[in-house]
Amino acid sequence: MNTTEITAASEELFSGKILHMFHDEVILPDGGRAMREIVRHPGGVCVAALDDKNNLFFVRQFRYPYREEVLELPAGKLEKGMTPLENGKRELLEETGAEGYSYISLGQVYPSPGYTDEIIHLYACRVSSVGESRPDFDEFLNVEKLSLDKAVEMVLNNQLPDAKTQIAVLKTKLLLDSGKI
Fold this sequence. Notes:
Strand content: 35-45%
Mean pLDDT: 96
Strand order of the largest sheet: 7-4-9-8
Number of helices: 3
CATH class of the largest domain: Alpha Beta
Largest sheet: 4 strands, mixed
Distance between the termini: 41 Å
CATH topology of the largest domain: Nucleoside Triphosphate Pyrophosphohydrolase
Order of helices and strands: EEEEEEEHEEEHH
């Protein structure tokens, strides 16, 4: 059965610095019509950076939508003119002061396909050096290191609620255990 929906009309409701919200009318596969609310997002990147003792670099920062501090892997939105990998290297350096090497792709994640087109690119790498972090002017964060095994345990115990972090931690563990990292 064909499940494709075709856009009949689209109205931009909001245009922000990062997000753009649309109200679309679609033609359903059976010819009926329905409304869809879409948030357009430039995409993001997340990096699981391992040191020589298999510790991961994390950042703890206040996440306003949830009104709480969240422990997550270094991540950020994609900047125009840069590849996802270049963005990942930049975010890792800015947020943690770490420089990585031997980057491997962990694939892409659609964090919420019901209402946004955001795609997050996931990477793992090894850390070659660590210096000063240089977060953006509006980022206040603390860098923490956890063993990969502890991070997996925290994912399984619902102590790392961030989806991109959970996926990157578990994929990194599987790849490390199979000798691919």
